[in-house]
Amino acid sequence: MQNTNKIPLESMWNFYFCKKSLAEIDVTEISFNDIAAVPGCFDTGHPYFLQRGTGCYRTFVDVGGEIELYSEGLGLRADIYWDKKKVAEIDAPFSKNTFRFDAGSEGRHELIFAVNNQFDDGKASLWRRDYDFYAHGGIYRPVTIRRAEAVFAREIKIITSNIDNGEVEISCVFDGDIKNIREAEIIFDNSLTVNKLPLTSGQGSAKFKVPAFKLWSPENPALHHASIKVGDVVFERNFGIRKVEAKNGKLYLNGKKLTLIGYNRHDAHPDFGYAVPTAVLVKDLQLLKQLGGNCFRGSHYPQSEEFLDLCDRTGVMIWEESLGWGNREFSLTDPDFQEKQKRETRKAALASINHPCIILRGFLNEAGTHLETAKPLVKALADILHEVDPATPVTFATDKAQKDVCLEYVDVISFNTYPCWYSGNEDEFMNHDEFKRVMDGLVEFASQEQYINKPVIISEVGAEAIPGLRGGQRWSEEYQAELHEALVRRVIEDERFSGTFIWQFCDARTFAGSAAQTKAGNFNFKGALDSHRVPKEAWHRVSQVLKEYEL
Question: Which of 116, 224, 327, 460 could form a disulfide with 503 if both were Cys (CB 3.0 to 4.6 A apart)?
């Protein structure tokens, strides 16, 4: 019998793979003939390397009564079984879900995750095969079971309301046995002072001053702790006090002008897929800090709780976004797709709401935002993020440049642009005139009256570099380095820009489709590091530039 309320299930599970859909799986007939790590991606190694189908994971848990099953993220979809009975379904990759149900009598119970990674190219799909990052199958992130408490939290939000006096607003939504509960008791940082939060039907919101508060910043990533007691149940949350503003055409953190210099980063590794070990996460953050960078964009899906915790502690700023890539009109106008996007965007924001490292929130990378028909969904998603997290600016990365018609809904304008790479220009060596022309055009467009007060970020620029290929021509390390250097210098020197996220941090696996000839070895080689985090010339060049400007 487990002697703790929390039962982590990170271990070796029994495993079975077949090339069937979830609808074709009968868990009563499965013969588990292999083992697999959880978290883990079943298609990163043999005998299931890059295979598409259903991986069935099984473990046994000693528990009983009402329980909560938490899945932090998997892909691409899953059915979950408890003692051979389906208890839950997950239809969205990287989605964080908690399921509450009766586990039955005390004793040993069987838990099965049937996880499918076959493509769905329908209108409502959240991961089509043309997405430019690999659709791994597996349980990406931790699975945990807790014995259910009488009261459980649907929402706990701690949002900074005043950085001058350390005031925060705490908003809570509790459920369960709340009939006779009229207040929550809140203690900050283990102090002796007990603050009271009035509750009506399990809900309440009030402002409190955090004693001896410190502001969170990249230079001093100070964290605070709140202990929230409701009845006999205590909820623990870490948070930071900080203020992010998008005003007068610039970004500000705690009243100081902010320049973002960092990378788009896939939470992926060639050996582990999206189940990235802690040591790799720490290494990635250390590399960025040593470079002189200060931020990552979590492209293009919600980041893990562990990674966000590490960013909180190390002072690395994050652009967090819900899953979406290149969605066009046939998806953007589809009611099912719209509802999934709204649901998952809200869910992701609520899951990460108390992380001070998140300084931008976004959605729908490179969607069809040049179309009038995209406006309803873009507005709805921006409204959701503003409602859930009013303290963090909202953006989305557009590749439509001057044709985008949805920029009125965001606080920050973010351009994905690839001069000297996807420009149709056939120059063998980098064309600096072309680069300048494209950047000048974006500045001119974003300086129109309706946009002049919105900060501007270059959210993607890049070029592929095969590790070890030298000479200065396209695909060489020097070509990529020259482009990255030109980008960073322009962003630092041009007052219209508030920063850039270079595409990309490290080489990452992508899907080999009919355009496979443009993705050598099924990898996107635009990384400044290779897939195992070995620096290319561009990494060293950017580091030198940042030292020169003393950023």
Answer: 460
Burial readout 443-460 (b: 16 or more C-beta within 10 A, e: otherwise): bebbeeeebeebbbbbbb
Q: Provide the residue count of the chain.
A: 551
State yes or no: cis peptide before 302, omega within 30 of 0: no
Cα–Cα distance list, 102 to 67, 71, 331 (Å): 6, 17, 37
Smallest Cα–Cα separation from 151: which of 132, 130, 172?
Answer: 172
Residue type, 451: Y
What DSSP designation does 75 have? Answer: B
Report residue 246 as tokens: 């998008």
Backbone angles phi, psi at 95, to 5 degrees: -75, 135
Contacts of 104 (CB under 8 A, 6+ apart): 64, 82, 83
**Distance between CA atoms of residues 19 and 43, nearest Å:** 12
Would you state the pLDDT for residue 519? 66
**Terminal Cα-to-Cα distance of the chain (whole angstroms):** 54
Distance CA 202, CA 180 (A): 9
pLDDT at 6: 87
Q: Cα(511)–Cα(519) distance, rounded to whole angstroms?
A: 9
* DSSP conformational letter for 73: -
User: Can you tell me the distance from the alpha carbon of 128 to that of 138, in angstroms, rounded to the nearest whole number?
Assistant: 17
- By the 8 A CB rule, do 169 and 140 touch? no
| Assigned token pair, 380 | 């709805």
* Segments in the chain below pLDDT 70: 1-4, 513-520
Only one residue has tokens 């079975």, namely: 16
Residue 538 tokens read as 């561009």
Which tokens sit at 159?
């949002």
Indicate the DSSP class of residue 311.
H
Residue 153, classed as helix, strand or coil, is strand
CB-CB contact of 542 with 263 (8 Å): no
pLDDT of residue 520: 65
The DSSP string of 440-502 is HHHHHHHTSTTTTTS-EEEEE----B-TT--SSSTBSHHHHHHHHHHHHHHHHH-TTEEEEEE
Q: Which run of H or E residues covers position 68?
A: strand 66-71
* Nearest alpha-carbon partner for 365 in 488, 504, 253: 504
- E strands along 104-202, which residues? 107-116, 138-139, 143-147, 151-162, 167-176, 183-188, 195-198
How many Å apart are CA 408 and CA 414, to the nearest integer? 12
Q: Rounded CA gap, 56 and 22, in Å?
A: 10
Closest CA relative to residue 324, chosen from 93, 138, 512: 93
pTM (2 d.p.)? 0.95
